[in-house]
Give the backbone structure.
Amino acid sequence: MKTIKRIGVLTGGGDAPGLNAVIRAVVKTATNEYGWSVLGIEDGFEGLLGETRTRPLRPSDVRGLLPRGGTILGTRNRGHFAIQQVGGRIIKPEAAYREALANIERLNLDALVVIGGDGTQTIAYEFFQRGVPLVGVPKTIDNDLVGTELTFGFLTALDVATEALDRLHTTAESHDRVMVLEVMGRHAGWIALEAGLAGGADVILIPEIPFYIEKAASRVLERERNGRTFTIIVVAEGAVPVDGSPVYQDRGNAQSQPRLGGIGHVVGDAIQQLTGKETRVVVLGHLQRGGSPTAYDRLLASSFGVAAVRALAAGEAGSMVCLKCGEIVTCPLSEAVLQIKRVPPDGQLVKTARNLGITFAGEDD
Ligand code: F6P
């Protein structure tokens, strides 16, 4: 790797609280510790195309960013680098990569810090394989990246979902209703599971445990018999009934990915029909992604940003910073993008929930 003088930083995929804290840490460390200059690339990898969209980032440009939600650099979900599948064949957008590589050269970028989730890190790995020295920083409120025990943004989302459950409790109890809360979590039910535990839900439905709606309804009726005249159900957007399929708001196209959403209403309607109980549904949506990061997310995001720059300075590339056993370390990007981290159906948290009397309405419940 040639001597680093100037690096680029970008944010890709869905936003998450803590992105700005990473940008701040990258700029401060690169500038103050190593004397490098930093260029912010706007709108994810899209900012590397055409005339390019970039802006210099100095420590004075990142002042006050620590508590600010969103990303000052902007982000994109798929864009021109998304891998297409045509007739079972995987097609990589080589023309876009060529254009971006030429621009990286023209902008004199010696390395990149890429902040993003599984989709963004997969694209980062493609750039690395095409010769760009880079280090990834894992981000997603879903906490579903395999290389790291925790991604920043998750704990903030967890707090929002838990507070929503606390609030739903009081109104559910007052009206003797069933309340269904739909939370994010495409392929992994971490938010639903952990918020369900922290917020005292009675039923948790997650993508990893296909559910029988009849079992969820039985739990509502069983509670009723025991004098508990309300029930709280939390459902991840990617949860699926046994022999059913995920519920989409929008199936997506070449530019946009399919958008899950609506399982909460499917569950709510069925529960009302099967139990005769008045049921209300709340979809928490992007409230989980917006706003200020919690203290721990700020800490994790800052530690990741500093560690990414240090890794580049140490000559590392093609890796991702991650949290393992309380330590910030790096792992190869090739491993980090292989698969996503899902809730183990027989894992400790699921067992804990079952021991607390929560049902997943699955085969083993
Ligand atoms: O990956 C995080 C996530 O929050 C998913 O849980 C959700 O399906 C998705 O982003 C929604 O993203 P957007 O609304 O930006 O398409």
Summary: The two ends are 54 Å apart (CA to CA).
